[in-house]
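Please annotate this fold before class:
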Amino acid sequence: MSTVFPIPTLQAGTAGLQLEGVPLADIAQAHGTPTYVYSRKALTDAFVAYRGALAGRRSLVCYAVKANSSLGVLSVFAQLGAGFDIVSGGELSRVLAAGGDAGKVVFSGVGKSRAEMRQALMADIRCFNVESAAEIDRLNEVAGELGKVAPIAFRVNPNVDPKTHPYISTGLKSNKFGVAFDAALDLYRRAAALPHLKVSGIACHIGSQLLDPAPIAEAAEKVLGLVDRLAAEGIVLDHIDLGGGLGIRYRDEEPPSVEQYLAPLLAIFAGRKEELCFEPGRSLVGNAGLLLTRVEYLKPGEEKNFAIVDAAMNDLARPALYDAYHEVVAVAPRAEAGRNYEIVGPICESGDFLAHDRELTVAEGDLVALLSAGAYGMAMSSNYNTRPRAAEVMVDGERALLIRRRETVESLYALETPLR
């Protein structure tokens, strides 16, 4: 087993694997399994890397809340001075509950409701990233009803291929996100004429798990050309939002560092006065977390061997949804020879798998960790098969802090009423 893990704060200790200074076995004993476990140091280091790469440049790093919306995670970033990229009123409520600054919040998403617009306007968020012509009319109307002026940026679709999984590609003509690049100029003219909107910026986001800076640099060049065309018409922008998307290592990927990823963008905008905004999600939290689970049964078969664990597709949807890869490691490896297993959960679906054909040396009752699970893990989890969602623990040096209690079965139907 490799001792070089994608999670930088995970290491082998005398009691098996430990995150920062806490053995994973101790966390399982205290809080049970399955449990999501995060490293505060890894979260902090990832954010500081962005701040360092942008030193000397007017900028704002807005964490993409959808990647992991745990209050414990959000509070770490809030204390570091982060902004936040949200896509729902619920996410705004979470940011505020975690101590985030509404003045550093940008609201993206294609389907903002009137209620969400009112909520965001009353909170005085930084900017709405508008994604359709219909949205500017609705937002103008809602802002007028409140006696407010809504700051906006159009999310422009630059039609650049991000060379990533099609499900997480967001900047092509065929995607639902953003407004067409060729229509953007006219939309800005319309918005600038509306009494309850203030044109503040421009935004684009071409996709997620990007491993090459070239596509986002291409998109940035197109955006810059549009910014200058707007300025020529007297529509001067305060900020340019280039989205997120920087990828991480799950298996054998070699993503660029934050500095390498941002360098061509900073070069393109060198000497510009506009504030540069970024919306990283996965690159901040993905390799700061893991899913800790326990082997329930080992089930040998004629064609495949199965390791049935107590985590399932409801806990970590990415493998079943995208056929995504997560490294799987034994918390306390055994000395004997390993065997290849399908890592599966208890859910009644053939698609309930967490990993295919992985060599492990484990026995029933052993702990295993699914790595790189800090992004789109707990945030996408569900209660399918009436399974309570996992606990969440934040490791901070030598301490393991419970930041979300495990759900109970009773809590799952607390809002329901049986017929008598």
Q: What stands out?
A: The two ends are 57 Å apart (CA to CA). The chain has two domains: 10-39+286-412, 108-280. Residues 164-172 have pLDDT under 50 and may be disordered.
